[in-house]
Amino acid sequence: MPRLRSLALIGATTTAALLASALLVTAPASAAPGQATGASAAAPTITINATSKLGVITNDVAVVYHAAGGYGGATIHGKITGAAAGDVATLYYQRFPYKKPAAPLASKTLTAGTQTYSFKVTPPLATRYTVRLFPSSTSHTPIATSKGQNVYVLANGNVTGGNSCQNDRPVCHETYHVYTILPPSALSTEIGKHLYPYVGVNLSPTSVPPPPRWLYLNAYHSSVTTGHRISAGEFVNIFTFRFTLGNDGYRFNWVLCTRDTVSKDGLGLPGSHGCGYLQRVSGTNIPYLG
Questions:
Q1: Which of 114, 241, 261, 264 is the most buried (most CB within 10 A)?
Q2: Between 3.30.565.10, 3.40.350.10, 2.60.40.10, 2.60.120.10, what CATH number should domain 45-153 receive?
């Protein structure tokens, strides 16, 4: 799994219709004068959902920018009820900053019977998806439209550095280069953000201890430099911390976070998730911070 800048850059030592109710309309064998001989079919309906390899994060679905291993994409899926064979389901997208009209991305022709649909997507920035149902591939007037489904995008990145405290006793000094990979349009906003470090250390005089239960904000003399631009879509921060370990066994963990500004640059999740506000976070089940 790629390292997620907003999810947690963690320290080195842990590691889908045609439901076709073809409405089986049953007309009476004979009808009284003025009596209707049929029933009107219900209007088609479309459900829509999104799933990604990251799972649901604080009620939202997200992918990782340009990530490998399936983490860079999501699936838009749902069910269409009340359609007819030959109807066309088309996926539309509207990308941050949502100033351009929604545009078609992919289409599928439906067959008779109950049917689901799915489309694979790889958004570079926060994107809103809808599915529209048309009576044919040449029609421009939809007969049904789904609600909107948002898929958010998290920055990618990687970490280098760190060393064995065995060579650094009695005081361990750790230095990491934290690289952030993101859409060029978001660089000017993200590179200027303050990074909040959380660090936890566990020591034992007799053995290698379990991971620290808590990571604390700005602990262990932690420091993070301002971002340095490497390219149009990448920058680096240098993160350091130190702690006294003497001759003890040790285990440490850490995470950096920045506060999300998805309404400003289309990166991250909506809302606040505690970054820089929480004084401590779990060291064994690190939550989303942004």
A1: 241
A2: 2.60.40.10
Domain residue ranges in the chain: 45-153, 156-282
Q: For residues 65 and 123, is the Cβ–Cβ distance under 8 A?
A: no
Query: Taking residues 15-33, what's their average pLDDT?
Result: 30
Which of 19, 25, 18 minimizes the C-alpha distance to 40?
25
Condensed to tens digits (0 to 9), the pLDDT of residues 204-261 reads 999 999 999 999 999 999 999 999 999 999 999 999 999 999 999 999 999 999 999 9
CATH fold of 156-282, please? Immunoglobulin-like (2.60.40)
Number of residues that this document lists for the chain: 290
Closest CA to 242 of 234, 252, 229, 232: 252
pTM, two decimals, is 0.84
Question: What phi and psi, each to the nearest 5 degrees, are found at residue 167?
Answer: -100, 10
**What is d(CA 263, CA 269) in angstroms, rounded to the nearest whole number?**
9
